[in-house]
Write a structure and sequence with these properties.
Number of helices: 0
Oligomer: single chain
Strand content: over 45%
Amino acid sequence: QAQLVESGGGLVQPGGSLSLSCRGTSNVFSIYTMGWYRQAPGKQREFIATITANGDTNYAGAVKGRFTISRDYSNNTVHLHMSDMKTEDAAVYYCNADKPPGFVGPVYWGQGTLVTVSA
């Protein structure tokens, strides 16, 4: 069964950088839009960034210019590089894979990885 396996996360100081990775275990992900969401305690899950199968990217305003999403098509992996991090970036980060229009299939979520931003 296809899955998204996340890695990275951990503790970073304000102003620091951290990278997350998410590997899709099936080649089906090559046609999916892949992205990242996050959920802070007491808040709803929010969109962070996506990258389409064609490499088009989209970012939430709160992270634009600080976070970079990229994709390695050779192993169905999406990366999120986070820089100039702020305390409000602390959350559980979830990888997401969304099917393309007209494609019948599930939406996938990773297991989540905790990012803590603290001095």
